[in-house]
Amino acid sequence: PFEVELHRSGRTVRVAAGQSVLAAVREEVPYVAYSCEQGFCGTCQQRVLEGEIDHRDELLTEDERGDSMLICVSRCRGERLVLDL
Ligand code: FES
């Protein structure tokens, strides 16, 4: 489990083991964009302001991985991520 802070919304959500970041974020931001939920389409890409990302997709380039993630599949290596959301 880890926490995701939504910088622009001023909210923090907790992501349980077995739950996606997308699912947790949707509880606070119901309009967040997504489609495939499997790391293929890129619709759910979000900018990451802080935290160490555990990338689990095969879509983003190394450059994109520096400061963004696909929230439907990727997770956090530490205890906290901050998204620009
Ligand atoms: Fe398609 Fe996340 S919803 S990559």
Give the topology, please:
Blueprint: E1 2-6, E2 11-15, H1 21-28, E3 45-50, E4 53-54, H2 62-65, E5 68-70, E6 75-76, E7 80-83
Parallel strand pairs: 1-7
Antiparallel strand pairs: 1-2, 3-5, 3-7, 4-6
The chain binds FE2/S2 (inorganic) cluster.
Organism: Streptomyces durocortorensis
Domain 2Fe-2S ferredoxin-type: 2-85
Protein name: Oxidoreductase
Can you walk through the features of this model?
This protein has 85 residues and is an alpha+beta fold. Strands 2-1-7-3-5 form a 5-stranded mixed β-sheet, with helices on one face. Strands 4-6 form a two-stranded antiparallel ribbon. The protein is globular and about 30 Å long. Bound molecules: FE2/S2 (inorganic) cluster (FES). This is Oxidoreductase.
Essential attributes:
85 residues, alpha+beta, 7 strands, 32% strand, binds FE2/S2 (inorganic) cluster
